[in-house]
Amino acid sequence: MTTESPVVLALDLLGTFAFALNGALTALRVARLDIVGVVTLGMITALGGGIIRDVLLDVPPATFNDWRYLAVAAGGGLIAFVSGRHLERLNTPITVLDAAGLSLFAVTGAGKALQLGLGPVQAVLLGALTGVGGGTLRDVMVRQVPSVLSSGLYAIPALIGATATVVLTLLDVHGPATAVGAAVLCFGIRMVGVHYDLDAPMPPRAFDPRSDDDGPR
Amino acid sequence: MTTESPVVLALDLLGTFAFALNGALTALRVARLDIVGVVTLGMITALGGGIIRDVLLDVPPATFNDWRYLAVAAGGGLIAFVSGRHLERLNTPITVLDAAGLSLFAVTGAGKALQLGLGPVQAVLLGALTGVGGGTLRDVMVRQVPSVLSSGLYAIPALIGATATVVLTLLDVHGPATAVGAAVLCFGIRMVGVHYDLDAPMPPRAFDPRSDDDGPR
Amino acid sequence: MTTESPVVLALDLLGTFAFALNGALTALRVARLDIVGVVTLGMITALGGGIIRDVLLDVPPATFNDWRYLAVAAGGGLIAFVSGRHLERLNTPITVLDAAGLSLFAVTGAGKALQLGLGPVQAVLLGALTGVGGGTLRDVMVRQVPSVLSSGLYAIPALIGATATVVLTLLDVHGPATAVGAAVLCFGIRMVGVHYDLDAPMPPRAFDPRSDDDGPR
Q1: Which is nearest to B11 in space by CA: B91, B106, B80, B77?
Q2: Where does it localize (chains A, B, C) (predicted)?
Q3: What is the pTM assigned to this prediction?
Q4: Which of A105, A194, A206, C177 has a 20 to 30 Å separation from B151 between CA atoms?
């Protein structure tokens, strides 16, 4: 699946690298970590979504079993460890690469679920989960409410990209162009969200949560 | 398993709905969440226990693969999102429904484990885990020590209901009446615990934990 | 795998017991827990690493399916619950036992991964994960940044022990002596780290994380 074509493989490895780099930098910003922590959280961000997807599909985790993904993810984490402070200035390209990773993972995740015979609703959820699962695991491990649950447009573009993949595949319009189109759609919505600082809808007449960012519960 | 009979299916879906509603409301009370967060945490509360059980059984997660459970769980989360503040007044019926869900999940979880050939101890643990696993995942994601580990009678009625299921099944007294009896036992203990505000035993000469409820996050 | 020989079984059960005891005591120190919480967190510390390994290997979790491991893990948790305050004085022997558990789990975890046909890199990672996974799960559940990610030498000896196991096995030098040698190596490095209070390398020009150590951890 992840090795279908050299182009998809290259893009997938690039997305993995971006996720690891961005994930490790995000973790470094909120917790005191040593080298084990930085590299581990980079790898978890990069590979966690695909691993959760494959566990839910009850198949062996594909990226974990492919040393190239492990090496690229570890490399991203190591670079963040060594030169974290300098990379802070590269915030914009890293955000763009991260959005590319999100788009690719959502599309390839939904595609893999369909190939394994899951229903369309499950394929959409698994596609989105492939994109957002790794960052969610990382946030939980550094004691943050996962940002995907609280702010920004991150899960929504992933859900839309996965839905486009599933709909087009069910209409029998599959092939590389379909995947690219769905990924571009996800990427575009994500970047619009970043640029205009959009959030997903909040509850009406907001609750007054007792233990969010500043207080004990 | 989950589709054995229309009555069990209806009860199971009702329990799923109650878990999603209660889970999403609980999450809203302690963290600032957007619509993605509220619906996701409702679904995780409702489906997480069964998914953990099926992962430990090494079988594909049944409720995740059944769109009716996904729809009911998402519906519960959405209702909590839209009308959370009003539902706060319905605290008692929601607690009762949640206890019903706990009872059903503990009994059906233990039953599924036995059917798949697990030993009695494992079946009891998996039954209880089906009941309490989803809420535990939710609590971790909103940065709470899982309430099931710290206060109230929640795991204990689930363990008792699962034990009753296993003992009666091993005595060859199975069938719908057994399941109903075990579920009623669990439900009764849970409601007695709620009514009298009972807690499970605490450690003797309590420790003085450094970072529990009164420290900064 | 875990029942290969009576000696390995006895050592493995002893390691499980040490992990459960140490894990439950650690959890008690940082969170207000009832009996369910203490025993659950002891069991999660003891069995969690092996369960994560087996989920990633896509095989049924071996220790969960063996009532002896469940009983020993629950026993360790119960002893911590009943006599936690007195055990605080036994800090040194418990640390030594915990290091022994870490060493055994890293070596047997890497060995199991190799036996199931995983590659050498995966086997090293799964060995280390078997050793550190349970404590990581526990820390997340009591709202701590996992100590393995932030300080001390814990993952590194596990990685070295697992690497030694994999290298020696690939060189066809396997057998009990190999396993013992690799475990002793891991144990030695861990105890040197404890004795001299060594930490893994921290990021250069440390970040100033916003939400880490100013709270009690």
Answers
A1: B106
A2: Cell membrane
A3: 0.90
A4: A206
